Structure formats: C-alpha cells, structure tokens
C-alpha cells in the first residue's frame, strides 16, 4: 500500500473520538457508569441482588474501580437458569429487541436491548469499523447471518451509522456472495474467518482472483482464529484482516476491535470494563498475564452484566498502541476454555493445531480434529487438506509434508497425534462458525 493510501485509512474518524479520551477522564467515566450499573442490577434483578447480598457487598461499597473485585461473577449458566427473561433490569415495555444464541444443549440464552442499548451497540460497531479504516465511501458486504445471531444486525447498523453502504447478503449461498463481491465492487466485508476462506476458494474455482478486486479490508470474528489464519487470509485475498471481538451476553460484536496496527483488539472501555482472571482461583491476574476475560457492562440498560465470565482466554495488553487510542487492548482471542480438549491428560486447543498446521507450506486452511477412543485410550487425528500440487506430486512430497506436520504437531502440543493428509474439498465447508472437532469418543 502506498504512503498516501495508508494515511487515508489511518486518518482520524469523528466517530472514534471516545477512543482517545484521556485516561483519567476515562477512568472517572467508567467508575460513574459502574456505580450506576451495580445500583441498577441490585435494584432490578433478583438474582444479582441475592448474589451481592450473599457476598456481603452493596452498591455503595463500590467507591473506586478497584472495588469491582468485590462483586460476584455472572456465568453463562445464570442466563440459562433464568431463561428467558429473568435477568432483565427493566419492564418488557422498554425492551425493543431480543436476540438469542443457541447453546450446545437445550434452551438458548436470551439477551435484550432497550432503545438506548441499541444506540450504544450501533455506536461501538461504527467505532470498530472506523478503526478498520472504513469510511462512508466503502461498500460493505455483510456475510454474517441475520437473525437471532447478533453478528448480522450488529454489523448492519454499524455500517449504516458510519455512512458506508451495507449489502445485507447474510450467510450462505456462496456463489452469489462471490458474484456480489465482484459486481458490486465491494471494498470491505465481514464474516467468520472460516466462511471467508470458503468464499475465496469458490471465487478461485469461478475463475475470480479476489486480489484483483477492490476488496481491501475485512472484520472477522465469531470464532477463534490464529495469527497464521490471518496471514493466510491476507495473502490470499490481498486485504487487511482485522479482529472483531464480541459476545451476545455483553452486546454482540463490537465489544473490542483492532485498529490498523493489528496488535489485538481495543476494548470499547467506556461501555465495557475488562478484567482478566485466573480461571481456577477467580483472582485477577497482572496485566500481560494470560487468563479468562471477564467483562462488566457499563451502560447496558435492559440486561446489565456484572463481571461476566466469557470463557475466552486472553491477556490485557497495556503498552500504548501507536494509533494513539487510550483504550486498552486484549490479545486476540485464539482459544476459549470451553474448547479445551483433554487428550491422554494433555490440554489441547484447536487453535494450537491451526497455527501449527498453517505455518507449514503446502497445507490449506481446512482442517478437522477427530477424536476416538481405542482400548480406553484417547486418539486424536488431525485431518488437513493439502494443495492439489502437493497431492498430485510424487509420493515423496506427500511423505515429506506428512513428516513435517507430525513433527510440528508434536512440538506444539507436546503430544504425538496422527496427521492425515486429505485431498482438497474433502472436509465439509461451513457457512458460519466452523466445526473443527468431531468427538467420537463416546460412540
Ligand atoms: Zn491501536
């Protein structure tokens, strides 16, 4: 990119003004909003009031931001246990939207928004997009699913608020996505990383080189992805791929977003207060140390979340970002504690497998982990697609690649696993969140 083009995308956008609040004023704002949120939760939400009482803490005990550690955690099970409306802090008449996320088992969790909550969500999404360098001149393809999932509508209103042009394609129908990307001269896109990779593959089959299209930026999220995956996406599409972090329980996408420098997403701290804890002890860990992200909403009206345990593993980055934002950053979420697999006593995260695989040339970003149990012993097989060049090449190339991957896996995981090289297209493509693990151990 030329210096002039870089200057254009890193230019200050007016919607980003709150990103640059001086830190003392930002902390004052957070404290005032935290106190109001705790008071609101205590007054209006029975479960949160009871839990605060059990912990011997009252709203007036929150005198400084450090007092946040006195408050009890909220966990996903609380949303399930109070299904559907038990955590609402206002009458239904004030609620203007509901979203829900499908749990892995049984009932979904329900989240609610007042008019003000939607305005905040839209504003943080606009700030996220501005931090990617999106402006009103951009044509934005929204390939997140529209519906109960927060991805589609979250991006939609953010793009409109910024004044860019949104194309509400939603997920799926990949050939049409590619056609629109090309014909509508799309310049920016959002999707899950795995679905975008699938789009690139279809484009190539349709004889379209995405690197030659005007597309220049993408906001990716809704599933953990590795730095290696980012490198693959950027090289294959000729774009900058930015992380967008969020979760429905807090608001949806727009809790944190990366800037031009791609050094981990900045948390929109004037609305969401981040902490990182040791998931075992529940104690806060020092900045820079990895742990579980805990988020408290600071302005949510319909459904305030107090110290919500996200299950996402990250660390707070405290070094100042060259972009000048005062918002703290978190390390990009590569793994969730929910994703952790225990294989023969060793902890394994799918994202570790991903970074090891994709660091080796000749692999494609399509892989799957299959778990089985043989004579009581867990077996893990990593299936990865390889390029047709390698596959069509002499047997020697395949054997070499296999050996290299076996070594890379053992080194990364500290565990000997089986690697199986498969032909391009043999692993099922996803149009949303990719299913990376097939667990047949109980079969
Ligand atoms: Zn930055």
Indicate the topology:
Blueprint: H1 3-10, H2 23-44, H3 46-54, H4 76-81, E1 95-101, E2 109-114, H5 115-131, E3 139-142, H6 150-162, E4 165-167, H7 174-183, E5 188-191, H8 193-205, E6 217-220, H9 227-237, E7 240-247, E8 252-257, E9 266-267, E10 272-277, E11 291-297, E12 308-314, E13 316-317, E14 329-330, E15 335-336, E16 341-343, E17 346-348, H10 350-358, E18 363-374, E19 377-386, H11 388-392, H12 395-413, E20 418-422, E21 437-439
Parallel strand pairs: 3-4, 3-5, 5-6, 6-7, 18-21, 19-20
Antiparallel strand pairs: 1-2, 7-8, 8-9, 10-11, 11-12, 12-15, 13-14, 16-17, 18-19
Helix pairs in contact: 2-3, 5-6, 7-8, 8-9, 9-10, 10-12
The structure holds zinc ion.
Zinc ion binds at residues 259, 261, 266, 321, 323, 325.
Low-confidence stretches: none
Mean pLDDT: 93
Q: Which molecules are bound besides the chains? A: zinc ion
Largest beta-sheet details: 7 strands, mixed
The number of distinct helices, counting runs of at least 4 residues, comes to: 12
Radius of gyration: 22 Å
Distance N terminus to C terminus? 52 Å
The fraction of residues assigned to DSSP E strands is: 15-25%
Q: What share of the residues lie within helices? A: 25-40%
What global shape is seen?
A: globular
Output the strand order for the largest sheet.
4-3-5-6-7-8-9
Give the beta-strand count: 21
Structural class category: alpha/beta
Structural descriptors:
alpha/beta; 32% helix; 443 residues; 21 strands; 24% strand
